[in-house]
Amino acid sequence: MVGPLSWLLASLAVLAVQASVLTLQSPRLTVSSSDAAQLRSEPLSLAHKVTPPVELRATDTLKLTFQIVDEDGKGVQPHQTFVRFYDEVTGEEGIQPVKVTAGGKAKLELNMARPPSSLPPSGKDPIKVSLYLGSFKHDPAQYELFDLFVPPSQPPAQHADEVFFHPRPEIFHTFRPEQKVPPKFVSAVFTLLLAAPWVVLLGLLAHIGPQVPYLFSSGIFPFIATLGAFEGLLVWYWVDLHLGQVLLYGAILSIPTAIAGKRALAAVGERRLGKSSPK
């Protein structure tokens, strides 16, 4: 059975482990150009920031190397290790995770030819670079590393469909002008032309006189009625119908008109034969 003293000692030991602080060993930054020439290489001090600030060109590469150790100088792999880029003026920030080996060795490489998406947009002011360490067994640690100037940010490439999401010009509908009506005199002339056949028909009816009732016989009148229907169809076309409708209705009306016309011719022939036969 564990006594109270043993439990207290164990608790103090746990607290001592949890209170241990992680530190960086041999931190160093290196700036190289595209041809692998070193432009700057110096150790980092955890007591104060690097001066002057680090400046990168569009083709430069920044390498940050260090080892994470505990109070005994033993390499430790924290549960979380990341670098924070922060612009104090705009408030933009970005987080870049750092891979750490089991022995605590870590390296971060920042290639400006292909900058990571975590890097905030650059401005006239420097970006603050900080290192954060998080562990379940050690106290969290934060180290202010250096100030960083990066090349001006380029505008993002325009998407092919981006133009469809911007305000478009207002659409104005152009309506067809009103249909022009011919002068009344022209309309009257063509109306008389359309009515001319009926005027001639009435004149002929007046000429034949006593034979008018024969036109209303069962053999002749249907043909006259279908002819009148054709005249009414033309008037309807003038007022409301379209050409396609007139052709359709005319084709349908032509069937009874042909039948009635054939019957009318037969009736007229029978009448003539009746008159010419000897009594």
Topology:
Elements: H1 4-18, E1 23-32, E2 38-43, E3 54-55, E4 61-69, E5 80-86, E6 93-97, E7 105-111, E8 127-134, E9 141-149, H2 184-208, H3 212-215, H4 221-239, H5 243-276
Parallel strand pairs: 3-9
Antiparallel strand pairs: 1-2, 1-4, 4-7, 5-6, 5-8, 8-9
Helix pairs in contact: 4-5
Task: Please characterize this protein's 3D structure.
Pfam families: Ribophorin_II_3rd, Ribophorin_II_C. It comes from Dichomitus squalens. Helix content is 35%, strand content 23%. It has helices at 4-18, 184-208, 212-215, 221-239, 243-276, and strands spanning 23-32, 38-43, 54-55, 61-69, 80-86, 93-97, 105-111, 127-134, 141-149. 11% of the residues are buried. The longest helix is centred in the last third of the chain and has 34 residues, at 243-276. Mean pLDDT is 82; it is low at 1-17. The strands form 2 sheets. It has a 5-stranded mixed sheet with strand order 3-9-8-5-6, with no helix packed on it. Strands 2-1-4-7 form a 4-stranded antiparallel sheet, with no helix packed on it. A hairpin with a 6-residue loop joins strand 8 (127-134) and strand 9 (141-149). It is built from 5 helices and 9 strands. It has 2 domains: 20-149, Immunoglobulin-like; 184-276. It is rod-shaped, with a radius of gyration of 52 Å. It is an alpha+beta fold.
Summarize the structure.
This protein is of the alpha+beta class. The protein is 35% helix and 23% strand.
| Number of spatially distinct domains | 2
Mind telling me the C-alpha Rg? 52 Å
Q: Uncertain segments of ≥5 residues (pLDDT<50)?
A: 1-17
Count every helix, treating DSSP H or I runs of 4 or more residues as helices. Answer: 5
Class of the largest domain, according to the CATH hierarchy?
A: Mainly Beta
Structural shape: rod-shaped
Assembly type of the shown chains? single chain
For the secondary structure, the number of strands is 9
